[in-house]
């Protein structure tokens, strides 16, 4: 210790420009070299928190336990090889090398491998408290109350500046709800959030006048939603005389508030849709009933008019003038029917005459003569194509002996004999040699 003090005193007497002074970059680089060469590869157990996934594919998170925390980075190539799906609150064992990020002078663990190490501390606390409260019967279905069909005053225990309350109010208005929404402000994350939520639930019960209470917030990590897992919040909801809807996080998020509440909504928006659904159904029923009433009145008027027209028609038929008019109508009807019958008979006769004419034409000798003429012409053309003259015209020659018989084989030729070759344009006498 004395040696170190003496060295510091001697260094303080040296001016800043002396070569003994070391730049921040050089010093940090020396620390980095010392750490990386001394510690090397290590395995570390802890709980994941502050998990961030970058667009580049790199993953940054902190690994912590009850006494300390360690910054970690999992680069894209290593992240793609992992079989573990990282999440906040997860207990893991990671393997990697220590390094120093020189730009900030911060040491961090370059993670190469991630292995699950069971559920994290928060998850274990969640399961233990859930079991203890369930054993007390706080989650029993018999304790849960049904929601009022048309709630007029709704209290929402949440952060007044959060997006959840804005979405909630917008959906309620859009779906035609015309009640009163009271925002009961409370922290929904961090230290003191559970106390504020529990106190606000109790305050709402003391004030009275609420038909339904909604307790919730938007999504987040297990740590962000932890206030809704605190025992004081769960017991405040259980003691509420006003029906409570728990609307915490997203669809996949579950908190102990969800189990103790009378109704669980997947999201604050889902709670708004649930509460306003009865108003929408009632509005639709009124609209449907109004349309049905208008339709019934219209049908009644039409039916009365039809009945009145029928009575007038019957009265008109009973008068002498009506009888005469009916006679004219019957006469015209009979005339029309007679004309139609004559027309149909004429059409049938014309059709039969055309069919007979076609049948007679099909048996006419002229068509048979034409057919046979065409066939005879085709046969004559085939005969002409096979005649000797046609063969000679195609370049062939007919050989005959002195008796005029055709010579069909070379072997039939005799030495010193006379033969005749017939071409297309004439005949030539030939003599074979011995």
UniProtKB/TrEMBL annotation:
Its main location: cytoplasm. One of its GO terms (cellular component) is cytoplasm. Belongs to the XseA family. Residues 138-430 form the Exonuclease VII large subunit C-terminal domain. Its EC number is 3.1.11.6. GO terms for biological process: DNA catabolic process. It is found in: Cytoplasm. Coiled coil: none annotated. The keyword Hydrolase applies. PANTHER family: EXODEOXYRIBONUCLEASE 7 LARGE SUBUNIT. It catalyses: Exonucleolytic cleavage in either 5'- to 3'- or 3'- to 5'-direction to yield nucleoside 5'-phosphates. It holds the Pfam family tRNA_anti_2. This is Exodeoxyribonuclease 7 large subunit. It is an enzyme of class 3 (hydrolase). Residues 23-114 form the OB-fold nucleic acid binding domain. Residues 1-22 are annotated as: Disordered. Bidirectionally degrades single-stranded DNA into large acid-insoluble oligonucleotides, which are then degraded further into small acid-soluble oligonucleotides. Heterooligomer composed of large and small subunits. Keywords: Cytoplasm, Exonuclease, Hydrolase, Nuclease. One of its GO terms (molecular function) is exodeoxyribonuclease VII activity. The keyword Acyltransferase does not apply.
